[in-house]
């Protein structure tokens, strides 16, 4: 959990940090749509170029950005291996029984891996550049029309905000519990898979108890402050669109349009 980048905010004064959280959420949706609309490497290259510009303008260190990739390394490798050996194509490079490596499979695997990496990094940039409070306000504002059908928009936004806040807290708590168990002689490295799974139990049980205790204390604190949900609540900081948001909106629209053009005229990578 120490390697989890999602949910961690990096405080710095940058162009991306000052963008309205509602535009960031809409841009993330548009970016995901553009990635899935991309049908060739040219489309993914356009998405990667936009993401690189976001990283540069956000002033988030590259090391922190790469931490988001390390968290999904196993998923990326597993996806790549499965597609390399089981994707059927016309140009066979190597074969053995039911396993087969084709040129089309290698290209498709590379395309899929790049797509996953772009998704993970862009999603992590949202939380790196947006505080949980701002993210909550943005979600609540975007979902305001659902209040007409009595959907608990404020409750949903509050739950998501608390969950994001608890990610780094639980990460630190896990590290402390693990170090305490190591000091008592616990071994988390040696042995087979079954032994390693059993070794995790002394960490999970205290972690669950700590999470429930923190949740109970948070509920008591909210009750002590007379928290009443969204009833008669006001905002200390009101969200307002600025020229930065217009630029982000234009970039998002241009990205989708460019990917669609590349998809229509250049086709698939294989």
Structure description:
This protein has nine helices and two strands, in the order ααααββααααα. A two-stranded antiparallel sheet has the order 1-2. The protein has one domain (21-266). The chain is flat, with a radius of gyration of 23 Å. The mean pLDDT is 83. The chain has helices spanning 21-37, 41-58, 62-70, 73-86, 103-128, 132-142, 153-183, 193-224, 243-266, and strands at residues 92-96, 99-102. It is mainly alpha-helical. Strand 1 (92-96) and strand 2 form a beta hairpin.
List the topology elements.
Blueprint: H1 21-37, H2 41-58, H3 62-70, H4 73-86, E1 92-96, E2 99-102, H5 103-128, H6 132-142, H7 153-183, H8 193-224, H9 243-266
Helix pairs in contact: 1-5, 1-6, 1-9, 2-5, 2-9, 3-5, 4-5, 6-7, 7-8
């Amino acid at each position: 959990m120490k390697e989890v980048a999602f949910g961690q905010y990096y405080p710095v004064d940058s162009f991306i940090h000052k963008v309205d959280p509602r535009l960031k959420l809409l841009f993330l949706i548009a970016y995901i749509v553009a990635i899935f609309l991309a049908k060739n490497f040219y489309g993914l290259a356009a998405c990667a170029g936009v993401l690189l510009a976001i990283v540069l303008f956000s002033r988030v260190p590259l090391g922190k950005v790469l931490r988001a990739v390390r968290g999904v390394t196993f998923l990326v490798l597993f996806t790549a291996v499965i597609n390399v050996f089981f994707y059927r194509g016309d140009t066979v490079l190597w074969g053995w029984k039911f396993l087969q490596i084709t040129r089309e499979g290698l290209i498709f695997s590379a395309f899929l891996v790049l797509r996953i990496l772009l998704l993970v990094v862009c999603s992590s940039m949202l939380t790196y550049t947006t505080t949980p409070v701002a993210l909550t306000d943005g979600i609540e504002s975007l979902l305001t029309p659902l209040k007409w059908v009595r959907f608990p928009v404020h409750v949903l936004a509050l739950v998501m905000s608390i969950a994001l806040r608890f990610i780094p807290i639980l990460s630190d708590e896990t590290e402390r519990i693990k170090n305490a168990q190591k000091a008592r002689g616990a071994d988390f490295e040696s042995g087979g898979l079954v032994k390693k799974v059993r070794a995790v139990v002394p960490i999970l049980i205290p972690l669950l108890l700590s999470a429930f205790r923190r949740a109970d204390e948070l509920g008591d604190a909210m009750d002590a402050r007379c928290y009443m949900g969204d009833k008669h609540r006001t905002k200390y900081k009101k969200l307002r669109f600025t020229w930065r948001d217009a630029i982000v909106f234009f970039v998002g629209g241009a990205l989708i349009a460019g990917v669609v053009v590349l998809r229509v005229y250049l086709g698939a990578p294989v």
